[in-house]
Amino acid sequence: MDSCSSERLTLKVNYDAEEDILYIVVKEGPVSDSKEVDEDIRLEFDRNGEVAGIEIMNARRSIAKTLAQEIAKEIKAASL
Question: What does the DSSP assignment read for 3-26?
Answer without folding.
Answer: TT-------EEEEETTTTEEEEES
